[in-house]
Amino acid sequence: MKQAFNLRLATETIAKDAQQLGVSIEALENISIKVSAEIIQQPALQLVLTYEVTLPSQILANQLNWRTWQQIQVNFTDYLWEETCLECFIAGSEVDGSKINNEDIVASDQTEPHKIPLQQTTAYIEINASPDGRYALYQFESYRNPVTLPPVPLYETDGTTRASVGWNNHKDLTALSVASLLSSTSTVVQTPAHYERSFSLPITQLPNQQYAIANMNIEQIHPCVILWFGKTDLYFASGHASPPDFHNRDYWPKFEL
């Protein structure tokens, strides 16, 4: 069973971005990014995230910053969002069932319960992965909190080992069929450039059949991507705040696996 996500480009600066890259606005809108989330049982229970990026023109492919995967690069690295980065945010309640009740939160300067938006009170994790194999996993207590940079790493249950991802495949520049791109008005058809990465995270299954990661029931999952073309960065997600903010839980899909 898989959950699929079609990521959309944040369009606030699309005209300027298209001009900088020497392509049409339509070309940027035709960048395809599909992400799938899948639970696999063997060799161990894991959440597998697969990212497929398809660029509609060689002009864009020539400018894309997409590093070749190398085993030697597989290590925890901060600030990966400053280059092409495959990301995913996961949020939910604590495994023991405790959940912050927004109505019962009392601000320090208030005598009455003060309602605070859910996204400001719920813990979540952030996963960053570079196409070359570098990765990072961070934990937040609430919206962008703690505010330290780099963020606080996510640790395994021993409290000393940083959490990691397992890489599954790393395909680049796969030629796709161009039959669907043929039209009566075009005489030259350009084969799109296709890139794919897949990595997995260890999870656990609870008695209630829910899945958990880092002592947290998985309730929301938000895959997103930053593509860098030279000095131009494009942001992709299934839904966007304005300006783009991947941390804004109002735009995170429900986890359905």
Overall description:
It is a single chain. This protein starts with a strand and ends in a 20-residue tail after the last strand. The strands form 2 sheets. Strands 6-5-4-12-13-1-2-3-8-7 form a 10-stranded antiparallel beta sheet. The chain has a 3-stranded antiparallel beta sheet with strand order 9-10-11, with no helix packed on it. The longest helix is centred in the N-terminal third of the chain and has 8 residues, at 14-21. It is globular. It has one domain (2-248): Sandwich (Immunoglobulin-like), CATH 2.60.40. It has helices spanning 14-21, 25-29, 58-63; strands at 2-9, 32-40, 46-55, 85-91, 124-129, 135-140, 166-172, 193-202, 204-205, 211-213, 216-217, 220-229, 232-237. The protein is 7% helix and 33% strand. By secondary structure, the chain is mainly β.
Features:
single chain; 257 residues; mainly beta; Immunoglobulin-like; 3 helices; globular
- Which percent range fits the helix content? under 10%
Give me the Rg, rounded: 20 Å
Approximate strand percentage: 25-35%
Mean pLDDT across the residues is 83
* CATH domain topology: Immunoglobulin-like
Strand numbers in spatial order across the main sheet: 6-5-4-12-13-1-2-3-8-7
Shape-level CATH architecture? Sandwich
The total tally of domains equals 1
Order of helices and strands: EHHEEHEEEEEEEEEE
Distance between the termini: 7 Å
Largest sheet: 10 strands, antiparallel
